[in-house]
TrEMBL record:
The organism of origin for this protein: Agrocybe pediades
Full protein name: Cytochrome P450
Keywords associated with the record: Heme, Iron, Metal-binding, Monooxygenase, Oxidoreductase
Membrane spanning stretches: none
Pfam families: p450
Pathway: Secondary metabolite biosynthesis
Binding site residues for heme: C440
Needed co-factor(s): heme
PANTHER family: P450, PUTATIVE (EUROFUNG)-RELATED (PTHR46300:SF7), P450, PUTATIVE (EUROFUNG)-RELATED-RELATED (PTHR46300)
GO molecular function per UniProt: heme binding; iron ion binding; monooxygenase activity; oxidoreductase activity, acting on paired donors, with incorporation or reduction of molecular oxygen
Length: 514
């Protein structure tokens, strides 16, 4: 080796050693973000909040005087972001490092490892995301308008015929839009096997994903214990969820294939892919991605829409003054001669309805802790170490109830999104859809389904609190239920009364036109 080469090598080795030492020093030298004290061996294993997790983290954020929190158990690090400035810095500006998903051991037991929302930040995810962008971006999402109109009008008819069953009508609307757009599958009743399978998969599965909800997430080896062993509830539940997840994929896929074989092609994401497969050809990766997207959307779109719609009906019954203002705006623009349409939204002439939509998403975000992102590498922020692999939860609840951004945050007040002249203000960021490269890819589809449902129901019905036998209103409780990642309004009753003979006629004739 020449002296020059050995000098270069020595210099390189020195640089590498110094770099390695500086990283080690940094890692050792910097503390994790604040959080509850860790106990020997188990860390914070007993500290993970099992109920009201988002609200508890928000309280901890006050207690530890830090928007960024850290808890850890058995080497699993969890970081919770409670302030928008931290979410923006890490998940948006440093998206390169924070677009991964954590390895959550229970995911495999649930059979959810191919769920697009759970994929790591890799080429497989990029292909899924690209296909979704092509189909769900703002301009493309218009293609779902006729389907959304048809399904919302069906809901109006169901509410007219069987108003007490509003919860069932919500479920059918929320599941049938993704099922029809993904597979061309028509689900008309709650007995439908696709609705049954989604019921038995999505909520029980979502319940097990949060840290602390299953010991398998903390000690993965526990996942190897057979489901029949006593006291392994989460392993048993996961095995059932896995079965129903397979059914969620199998039933609509077989349906599409049979329709295809009969030559009765109903337009949908999957049929469109199959058509291309037999004409131009598609790669096996693309075929698999479309199948994964279809079943992910069927789960991701339905439960979030069910949760928001449930909150909407409840909030309308609870706040008649808000309902009346929205109805006055609808009556002024639409009148009693037709049902509202998407052009009423794009005209910009319904600022109150727009504010109502934003306030619903703020007040009742269905996924209060968002979906966890993961740190791909060690990162240093505000003097703290965020270790590689840490799960990063954007606490959507804390962001949407941040008093400095939304004064009086626990009051339902659409006016907060209006300016002094009654026009919609520029706070159009729906935090409930998440962040960065993993932001909800279906947000335009979700927004138009929700807006059309809200405006159509308010155009036709008065929603009121239940009454006792003397005709007095019964107060509704404010209880919400949590299913791991998801938050739904607890059971309640309310009444739907058609607003006028004209509204009834419009609903009846919408069946013929939609
Ligand atoms: C009101 C309804 C909805 C809400 C509140 C909602 C909320 C969310 C949230 C919080 C995330 C995680 C974002 C993050 O990681 O930061 C997400 C991801 C996702 N959402 Fe939605 N969503 C809704 C409706 C929909 C609809 C209608 C679709 C499909 C058409 C959809 C498809 C997805 C998919 C595929 C992902 C995963 C994206 C990825 O990991 O790259 N969602 N959604």
């Amino acid at each position: 080796m020449s002296p020059l080469t050995s000098n270069i090598l020595a210099a390189l080795v020195t640089v590498l050693v110094l770099w390695g030492l500086s990283r080690l020093f940094k890692r050792r030298g910097l503390p994790y973000p604040p959080g509850p004290n860790r106990k020997p061996l188990i860390g914070n294993a007993l500290d993970f909040p099992l109920v009201n997790a988002a609200q508890t983290y928000m309280e901890w954020s006050e207690k530890y005087r830090s928007g960024v929190l850290h808890i850890e158990a058995f080497g699993n690090h969890v970081v919770i972001l409670n302030k928008l400035e931290d979410v923006d810095e890490l998940l948006e500006r440093r998206a390169n490092n924070y677009s991964d998903r954590p390895v959550v051991p229970i995911i495999k037991l649930l059979g959810w490892e191919f769920n697009f929302a759970m994929l790591g930040h890799n080429d497989e995810w990029r292909l899924h995301r690209k296909i979704c962008q092509q189909n769900f971006r703002q301009a493309a999402a218009h293609k779902y308008h006729p389907l959304q109109i048809e399904k919302v009008h069906e809901m109006l008819q169901n509410l007219l015929e069987r108003p007490k069953e509003f919860d069932d009508h919500n479920k059918i609307l929320s599941i049938s839009i993704p099922l029809s757009s993904m597979y061309g599958y028509e689900a008309k009743s709650l007995d439908d096997p696709c609705i049954q399978a989604a019921d038995k998969s999505t909520i029980p599965g979502a319940t097990l994903i949060l840290p602390g909800q299953s010991f398998v997430n903390i000690i993965p080896a526990l996942g190897k214990i057979p489901a029949w062993v006593p006291f392994t509830t989460s392993v048993r539940v996961a095995a059932e969820v896995k079965y129903w997840t397979e059914e969620m994929k199998r039933i609509p896929t077989e349906y599409v294939k049979s329709k295809f074989a009969e030559g009765k092609v109903i337009p949908s994401l999957v049929t469109e892919m199959l058509e291309r497969k037999f004409s131009d050809g598609v790669t096996p990766e693309e075929e698999e991605a479309v199948q994964n997207i279809a079943y992910t959307v069927y789960g991701a779109a339905s439960d979030t829409t069910i949760a928001l719609t449930k909150s909407f009906f409840y909030l309308m019954a609870k706040h008649p003054e808000v309902q009346k203002k929205a109805q006055a705006e609808i009556d002024r623009l639409v009148g009693a001669k037709r049902l509202p349409d998407f052009e009423d939204r794009s005209s910009g002439r319904m600022p109150y309805m727009e504010a109502l939509y934003r306030e619903l998403q703020r007040y009742a975000a269905p996924v209060p802790l968002g979906l966890p992102h993961a740190a791909s590498e060690d990162d240093y922020y505000k003097g703290y170490l965020i270790p590689k692999g840490a799960s990063i939860f954007p606490n959507i609840w804390a962001l949407t109830h941040d008093e400095s951004r939304y004064p009086d945050p626990y009051t339902f007040k659409p006016e907060r999104f209006l300016d002094a002249s009654g026009q919609i203000n520029d706070d159009d960021r729906i935090l409930a859809f998440g962040f960065g490269r993993r932001v909800c890819v279906g947000k335009y589809v979700a927004s138009s389904t929700m807006w059309l449902m809200m405006v159509s129901v308010l155009a036709c019905f008065d929603i009121e609190k239940p009454k006792d036998e003397n005709g007095n209103y019964i107060e509704m409780d404010d209880e919400y239920e949590e299913f791991g990642l998801l938050r739904h309004k607890g059971p309640y009753e309310c009444s739907f009364t058609v607003r006028s003979p004209e509204a009834r006629q419009l609903i009846l004739s919408s069946g013929a036109t939609s």
